[in-house]
Amino acid sequence: MKKVVKVVATSVISAIVMGSLSLPVAARETATDTLSVDFSRSTGAFRGGATGTLYGFGDEGAPTQALINGAAITNTSQKAPYGTQHPSGDSLKVEDGFFAKHGKDMYIYVQDYYPDWSYHGGVLPGDTRTYDQATGSYTNAPNGIWDYLEVVEFVTEAVATKSAHAKDYVFIPFNEPDGGNWYANWSTMKSTFLDDWKATYTKIQEVYARHGLGHARIGGPGDTRWQPARSADILNFAKANSVLPDIFIWHELGIDNLRTFRSNVAAYRQLETTVGVGPIPINITEYGMLRDMGTPGQLIQWLSIMEDLKVDGQTAYWNYAGNFNDNSARTNSANAGWWMYKWYGDLAGSQTVNVTPPALNTVDTLQGIGAIDATNKRATVLYGGGSNNVSLNLSGLDAAVFGKKVDIEVRENTLSGAEGVAGTPRVIKVLDGIALANGAVSLEVPTYDRYAAYQVVITPEQDRTPEVDKVWTAGIEAENTNLTAATVYTQDPLQGGGWKFLASGGRDVGSFNQPTSKADWTVTVPRTGKYRFQVIGATPGTPGRHALFVDGTQAAPVQYTADLALTTYQKWQYRGSTEVTIPLTAGQHTLSLRSSEDGTTVLPNSDITLDKFLLTDVTDGEPTVYPASTLRYAGGARVTYGTAKARGYGAVRGAGQRAEVYANAWESGYYDLSVDYRTTDAADIDIRVNGRSVTKLTAARAGAWRSTARVHLAQGINEVELSSAKEILLKQVTTTRAAASDSAAVTIEGENTVRHGTTVVNTYSSASGSNASGLKGIGFIGNGAANTFEVPRGPGFDKAGDYDIAVSYANAELSGAHAYNPQVVDRRLDVTETGGTASAGHAYFRYTYAWNSFLERTIPVTLSTSGGSLVFGNASAYAPDIDKITIAPVTVGTPTTIATSK
Question: Is 860 in a helix, a strand, or coil?
Answer without folding.
Answer: strand
